[in-house]
Amino acid sequence: MRREPSRFHWAPALCLLGALAGCATPQPPAVTPEVARVLRVTGKGVDFSVTLSVKNPNNFELDAREVEGTLIVEGGQKLGTGRASPHRSIPANGTGTVESQVQIAWDDVAALQKFLTRESVPYVFKGNVTLGGDTLHLTVPFEMDGTLTREQLLQAGLRGLFEPR
After folding, report:
1. Has residue 14 been placed in a domain?
2. Distance (Å, rounded) from C-alpha 81 to C-alpha 95?
3. Closest Cα partner for 152 from 84, 71, 83?
4. From CA 18, how far away is CA 49, in angstroms rounded?
């Protein structure tokens, strides 16, 4: 009795091979900080414009869902945190720009008092951008340096906050 080779045994193997090829491990995107610019400083906080370049090495689109960060001045003093939801798409195997406006509410306004006599105060904005699609979410850290000027602080009306009543 002659037996025909069975196609049944090859079908699962081919399906498994195809599934493995289609389910490559997602690669982390590369986030490059481009610009952090102070838009305005108020008694309530700082409005930052944050621009990030995101390179997506994956075969699927990623959405920038959230940008969040903490504003820190020299000496490690945390002034506040904020977040924004930019809703920008990064194309598959491509690069996109994520622009957002992050509003940072003052956590410690009193910490600014020592800086009112200085021309400028260096800061670091330590942030994260959350990227994802329907089934994948990645959080990628970034860091940006800049300067708050005395003029910006005074325009915020902070001088009035520290004068004796």
Report:
1. no
2. 27
3. 71
4. 44
In a domain, 15, yes or no: no
Note down the domain range covering 111: 26-162
- 92: in domain: yes
Please give the model's pTM, rounded to 2 decimal places.
0.72
pLDDT in tens, 68-107: 999 888 888 888 889 999 989 999 999 999 999 988 888 7
Q: Per DSSP, what are the bridge partners of residue 73?
A: 77, 123
- Residue 64, burial from CB neighbour count under 10 angstroms (0-12, 13-18, 19+): buried
- How does 71-91 read in b/e, with b if 16+ C-beta sit within 10 Å? bbbeeebebbbbebebebebe
- Give the number of C-alpha atoms closer than 13 A to the C-alpha of residue 152, restricted to the C-beta side: 19
Report how many domains make up the chain: 1
